[in-house]
């Protein structure tokens, strides 16, 4: 199971890195757009303001960074031999839960 668990963690990490790179690319494009635009976009009747889009993308970026930190912590727990142990009750975390949520730190009972 350790090998497939490590593979699952690695695959999830790749997904998160790709998502983070995409959000950062979109933020860079938005930054570039904001540099070229000097008018008041808050009152633009044609769509979402650049400020709103910036806020949305920054929220996504922060979510991806947190998810990446969580998956890296899961990889560290696996390496240390502490994987699959509930941080609350000390009991086992079901393999199905770890498959669905590779970064899970609690068993299903404690997560409720």
Question: How does this structure look, described?
Answer:
- The protein contains 4 helices and no strands.
- It is mainly alpha-helical and 112 residues long.
- It starts with a helix and ends with a helix.
- The model has no long low-confidence stretch (mean pLDDT 89).
Structural class: mainly alpha
Helix percent band? 55-70%
Tally of DSSP β-strands: 0
**Largest sheet entry:** none
The unreliable regions are none
Oligomer: single chain
- Average pLDDT value? 89
Percent of residues in β-strands: under 5%
Compute the gyration radius: what is it? 19 Å
The gross shape turns out to be elongated
The structural domain count equals 1
Note the total helix count.
4
Which helices and strands occur, and which strands form pairs?
Blueprint: H1 2-36, H2 50-80, H3 95-100, H4 108-111
List keywords for this structure.
mainly alpha; 4 helices
TL;DR?
By secondary structure, this protein is mostly helical. The protein has four helices and no strands. The mean pLDDT is 89.
């Amino acid at each position: 199971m350790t090998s497939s668990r490590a593979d699952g963690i690695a695959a999830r990490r790749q997904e998160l890195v790709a998502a983070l790179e995409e959000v950062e690319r979109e933020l860079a494009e938005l930054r570039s757009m904001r540099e070229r635009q000097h008018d008041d976009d808050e009152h633009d009747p044609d769509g979402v303001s650049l400020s709103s889009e910036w806020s949305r993308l920054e929220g996504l970026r922060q979510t991806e960074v947190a998810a990446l930190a969580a998956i890296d912590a899961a990889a560290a727990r696996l390496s240390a031999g502490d994987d699959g142990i509930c941080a609350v009750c000390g009991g086992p975390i079901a393999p199905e839960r770890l498959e669905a949520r590779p970064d899970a730190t609690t068993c299903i009972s404690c997560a409720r």
